[in-house]
Amino acid sequence: MPLFEYRARSPQGQLVNGRLEAVSRDTVASQLIDGGITPLVIERVADSALPMIRLQHWLGGSKVEIQELVMFARQMYTITKAGIPLIAAIRGLEASMQHHLMKKALMEIADGLETGMELSAAMGRHPNVFDDLFIGIVSIGESSGRLEEAFDQLSEYLERDMETARRIKSALRYPGFVAVALAVAIVIINIWVIPAFGTMFARFNAELPLTTRILLGTSDLFVNFWPFMLMVLIAVIFGLRHYMGTPQGKVHWGRLKLRLPVVGDIINRGSMARYSRSFALMMRSGVPLPQALGLCAQIIDNPHLGAKIQEIRAGVERGESLLQTHAASQMFSPLVLQMIGVGEESGSVDDLLRDVAEFYEREVDYDLKSLSDKIEPLLIVVMAGFVLILALGIFLPMWGMYAIQT
Length: 406
Prior knowledge:
The protein is mainly α.
């Protein structure tokens, strides 16, 4: 289908640009006008430019960033609260959207609404953009007549989730940079530095200590077998990626992440905060308890914990209480279990779960602030050990040769 570029004005008079796939210019103009947008210029994209556009779309990624979803949820809250018709509103958002996947999804959602489809059902046709939680909350908002509240809750939830992920990435950036720099230094030293010393030691025919022989052997491995080592490394990376893409691999990796030194506890608390906030959000929106637990199991970022949440759901369906099922999962501390029990008895589980989420988020904040202080000593020990082995391997034989000559 041909691709058209357009320039138009929004209902507020702002200039917007975009691209649309359509049969003709008239079809593009009709879609824009239906969305309340006044087209100014509509031009067909040349066929020779399509490969580059597709390449740009591919480089743009195959996933909509959480920032885009936060802005979309906020805009939809404002739109639904103001009483603007959904089709016209989504057409307007689609015209001003920059991300190609989000733009295409909104265009197809508007098309679905025009055929009489519900908003949640139209969103459900785009699982690469909207997850089960997003669609489930929108569906509850539609059925209860409180769609604006659903989008308000979603924007708040997504923003908190985004901030937590951003803090974790920020805290791990420095240790990650040091680890990469250390790996590059090891490769450079083994390929260019140690062979030069090996040639000098061979010229003097000196007896070399064990540390030096190990360094020379490792260097020979890098120099002579680097293509084989590179192929093995690539094969291991692809093999691990394939394994972690399988259901069993995802569960194993999820379990391993929670056992990592230093960061494992932070990952666990972050996941528990996300689960508690998601569960509270769905209960406050009126989602049935088993369905809410099933959605939480699907959206949590750890399949190992997701399997445990499914066990909680099975226990609830058998008639067990939330306190019993959560205690059996061994995911929560006694304090959190006590809060869940009080909430269940008082009928305010959603409020108590929100307090649980804030409790975990405060712990994550504290741990992230002290993460660098915990990781830096480990990095210093690793780097000191590397420098010590390198120094002993190079300087011990040099001192031996100097002693022989003197």
